[in-house]
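Example record used in the benchmark description.
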Amino acid sequence: MISFGKGSKNGFHFEGLNLSALRALASKEFRQILRDKQTLVLLVVPPVLQLMLYGFALSPEVEHLRLSVLDLSSSPISREVVSSLVNSQTFDLHGRVDNLAELNHMVASGETDVGLMILPDAMRRFKNHDPVPLQFLVDGVDANTAGIAQGYIIQIISELNRSLRAEQNTDLRIDPQVSFAYNAGLTSSWFFVPGVIGIVVVIAGTLVSSISVIREKDRGTLEQLLMTPASSSDILLAKIIPLLILLLGSLSLSLILATTVFGVPVRGSLLLVVAVSIMAIFVSISIGMALATYSGNQTQAILTSFFINIPLIQLSGALSPVESMPRIFQIIAIFDPLRYYVSALRAVLLRGVGLETIGMEVLVLFFFAVALITLSALNFRRQLQ
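Model output (structure tokens):
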């Protein structure tokens, strides 16, 4: 139990607690923190950045979905349907195609979110007051977005039906028939789990690699490495290879859990998944090593890694579609390597596509891996000099 003690020439103090000493020590620590500019930046910038990202990037609204149209009718009623969808501000006309195979390919490759096919006899049915069927094919990889898109489609066509009935003074009905590609049951975990796998790879790779280098600095063993006959490249590779093997093991465990627990399908090549993941692992390791070279201690490295990782995660599309973010965040997301890894991972696992479809993602990810590992190697060599 703490009780008040008597005053002394050194100042008031609680029993067992010297307030003057406490005040002096706290003042010293406070001045020390204020002198550490890196810590001050980490205390101010990340909260602001995270608030902005969570407030804008993680928006539940679905807007500007890409709509591709196969209009086999080319009639006033088909144009009215497309106009109603585009004027709703929910769908953007991404393009028109000439055949069903092309429409299916655009959905399969992720080039469009919704495909619409209007049959050749749409105008004849309309004039005969028969139901006019519309065939919608929605990319179901993102179950949440697909479900919302279906709701918007039904709502927009229902409003169009009411408008046409008022104009024609008769019972007209346009019948939207919505089907979902690659996720007919709209299982939300199929969208989130591949994204979480990408997050795990990046966070684990960044933290483990940065802590590994920082530990060497704290123990003073980096200087000891200079005494060995190994070159700086040998030392760097000796650090990367074990991390790569361990992270591949973590990836394998994640894939096993994804398929057995969550039922995520593996429709594409596992070898391609591993190849793309190796590039993502190199990216995460190089980010971690770069952070370690710029950090003075382990605490700073961990705080800085969160400062880097959280924007990478929020802008990657792992948790919410990039297309639903404000335009400025979509532009920033272009420079997010995790975005390309998550996109490629979902495409291979859920859509079953090959390298020809995800070639751009793989190329960009390869560029990030080479550029960042080169930067890390240069910084690491400076540490050894």
